[in-house]
Amino acid sequence: xxxxxxxxxxxxxxxxxxxxxxxxxxxxxxxTAPPAKGGxxxxxxxxxxxxxxxxxxxxxxxxxxxxxxPVQPSTFYFDDKAALVMSTDLLDSxxxxxxxxxxxxxxxxxxxxxxxxxxxxxxxxxxAWISSNGTLTQQGSDGTPVTDPDSxxxxxxxxxxxxxxxxxxxxxxxxxGGKTVTATYDKNFSDWNxxxxxxxxxxxxxxxxGVADIAKAYADKNMxxxxxxxxxxxxxxxxxxxxxxxxxxxxxxxxxxxxxPGESVVLEKNPKWWGxxxxxDSIVFRLIDDATQQPIALQNKEVQxxxxxxxxDLLAQLEGVSGAEVKVDGGYxxxxxxxxxxxxxxxxxxxxxxxxxxxxxxxxxxxxxIPVNPSAVVVNNHFYFPFQxxxxxxxGDYAKVDIAKAKSTLEADGWALGSxxxxxxxxxxxSMKIARKDPNPRRASEVQLTAASCKEAGxxxxxxxxxxxxxxxxxxxxxxxALFAWVGSPLQSSQKAIFTTGGSSNFGQYTNxxxxxxxxxxxxxxxxxxxxxxADAADKLVWADVATIPIFQFPDxxxxxxxxxxxxxNPTQAGITWNAQLWSLx
Amino acid sequence: MLRLIIRRMLVAIxxxxxxSVLVFVLVANAGDPLEALRGRPNSQQAIAQRTATLHLNKxxxxxxxxxxSKMLHGDFGIDNKGLxxxxxxxxxxxxxxxxxxxxxxxxxxxxxxxGVISAVRQYSFFDYSATFVSFLFYAMPVFWFAVLLKVFGxxxxxxxxxxxxxxxxxxxxxxxxxxxFTSMLFGxxxxxxKRRRLIAxxxxxxxxxxxxxLVDRFLADRTYFRWIGTVNTTDPxxxxxxxxxxxxxxxxxxxxxxxxxxxxxxxxxxxFTRASMLETLSADYVRTARAKGVSERAVIFxxxxxxxxIPIVTVVALDFGAIFGGAIITETVFSIQGMGKLFxxxxxxxxxxxxxxxxxxxxxxxxxxxxxxxxxxxxxxxPRIRHE
Lengths: 586, 388
Known about the structure:
By secondary structure, chain A is an alpha+beta fold.
């Protein structure tokens, strides 16, 4: 009996202690608190950083670019208006000294050094060119090139993400102790100022692969050495090996100091940085891959900057976060309708014209995009976007819905309105399928709005949803119109693949022999004014052919918790960290 | 016993082999690992490169053999990003193990305790409330519960930590909790009079309020760090600090995901324990024990509870193996890189065959192992099994 009572007392004591503990949960957190103001700004990354070499085919990812922006040196960078601006931190000058052959002379700042003390010099430019010019291919043990049996394509020695531009360069010469670089092209490349960005340290590749001089190995065609260098370039920079300060060196305001897989990357000030110091002490990337959880993390003050894909729910969620500053802009990714020129219906110009006249682009923007981005507009140019100075509205008659004109266009071409309210010609009804990705509620609504509007013009629109239109629909040609988005680019050289005859991204097999020379000019023109003129001429031709119809830019969201300044949206592939050195706590 | 274990293990090996072949063939046909490379600037070269890395041009059984022989040496190959899979797999297993282990312990302790009390005091107020709560937990969508936890358990609680204090309402609520707790403890036996329960309750209230007063004094004019995390398992700002601060930070991040998982399993375990316990309590041997004059405590714990535990242990062991495969939703909501996320990544966009295989084979081994463990425990607890 006595023991029982004592037992009960003990239990009560424990119970009280538990309640007391519940009241004072935080007893030991006092000692664990980090310094209240250390100038750390945390960004919620949607995908994980995984390699320092963003130039490899495997490593080419936005997540890596975001971390590397303030770490690796670039000759030019994209500003918030998508213009390429020379980095005055890295270069004294970058001059196009000759247009035939195209020659660019870069003068690197004398005090530009990597964080391990080695100078940033011509060798780094040479490595960029050697690794991405596409001339070196893998060789098997018997010395023959390794090829893919299906396509017969040789496997490149350097597993580069893109050879664009670099393949046009004939030579990269060094002078002035490596501080002057001369790149000579054998075929002009209009977007030369987009090259030599995100430079990889050549001295690291040399040291780690045991190659004495990579440029010499290239000049001598020393394949054994090049293979060793390529091996390291391809695989040596991945983050799964941890952060080796002798490998992931920095020549920017910040350097990578720690990486916790699945969790975070920490950038801290680069002590060897020669330019204007960054305002924050540290930028942290925390992996939050579920976008709907980012506003909660913002509210819990775990992160200060988020850039999730916006939708009305997310915006409502952010409205509930006190102090949050939210901004939505239109980016480079744009929605568009693409015609199939192999289809008997859409290969006829009047049909495409009539469709363009009944396609309710303004209504789509008003009903589906304005709720997310109040400043959204209809895009009326295929080559430039409304935020660019070169943007011109070339839509002409197609700028607005005109049902009467759509009908008259069809009637002039011999189409007659059938008893079902749909036009027909020679026994063929004007019924077209719009292929789109499924599930995608927004695109389903776009097709619905289009079908309703075009029905008035006597055109029947049938929704053709498919989980993967690029694999299942576009290659088969069994569609009239494809609704999808292009990830656009400020680089005009990238437009050719979409519009040129037989272009790799020209799914609808559009062809116009008058257009092709302009597209060629977009890849080679060195005079910015002439380039813009060529793009404008090309755009007018594409509109006249009604080959594809742009609709709207995808909205991009930038939100901060209100405690930071200097976070400015950038529509290009540079992403939000393009000016990370200017981020600061209020 | 040893023979049983050996026999079971010998059966497991061919089972795993067949399983690995089957899964390999399924994964090989599940999707196009080159999908993301199509339409890129240098797609031809990139496709050639990946085809060579993944041996896609070789027949499937040769590929299986290449994969299998490497896997036997612990090499799971590289994924589509060019990263080694082994370290990712071990890390994901470690993370998931922490969460699953903690949540299972929590759920089992709570579930069994509540289940036993519910059964012993069947149709009491406690039983009804426990039933209500477990069905509520059972019915709640995980992501919704997780978000609720984040809002109240993290954001609001952290706001409170920044400016802590108990407040009048807090005193009252905590006091009432204390009162309920003590009166329940004292009055657990049905013979205890109402007056005594009331006195115990008042004493509990007074004691708790007194403690809280002291705590409130202590908290006044202090401010604390926002301890509870809603994402990841660590805060990088603690990376350079000592062991204890890092452990504290880690626990602050594990709290919510562990609670989320525990709550779901708890609901099941408590119902299961209650049913099992009710069954044994009405068994003949329990009645015999009571008739012999064995004390109620001994009847419940020595006679009924031990027997009731047998099926529960088996369920827990099997469950553990299953959740270890990853709690995809919980891991996603809390941005935790565990097994579930690994699997999701392997299937997202273009299929990552090596990654998917690594996950599937580990999960298969896991299920087999925990089935074995369940069998062994079952045999250990129930003497009838061994003799058959």
